[in-house]
Amino acid sequence: xxxxxxxxxxxxxxxxxAQAQKFALVDMEYIMGNIPAYEQxxxxxxxxxxxWQAEVEALENEAKTLYKNYQDEAxxxxxxxxxxxxxAIVSKEKEASDLKKKYFGPEGELYKKRVALIEPxxxxxxxxxxxxxxAKNFQLILDRSSDNGIIFASPSIDISREVLQKLGYxxx
Length: 172
Description:
By secondary structure, the chain is mainly alpha-helical. The protein has helices spanning 2-17, 28-33, 36-73, 79-104, 109-135, 160-167, and strands at residues 23-26, 140-143. The chain has 6 helices and 2 strands, in the order H-E-H-H-H-H-E-H.
């Protein structure tokens, strides 16, 4: 009797474990490319980045000019003048480096701006994907655009268009 009960329990476990797992794919590049707000945010980030890069390059060019002038005039300068010029060059280089770090560092202004502009869009997409996954009982959804490990995937399991429709965008 005990053996029969154990065999029945094992059989039930195998049946439950053997149920088909449902999964789907999304293409985040495709989804993002079809959301105008994402494209606008990217353009705004690019413009800001170019502007800040120009500021940093201007400071770097000032430092290079100071250094070139120093090299040209070094033979005519006293020790005190040399030291003052060297300090000015180092100060200008540090100013450029600090500005670059402020704008483009790991916790810099560009990162903060990217989070502020892009994160709400990503959250909206995540919520749409989660909603579809819950409604259709998907256990796993993979991003086909970021995973080089996917060699082939049937277009029938790609829910990218459905995600865009859920977000209210026309699908191309």
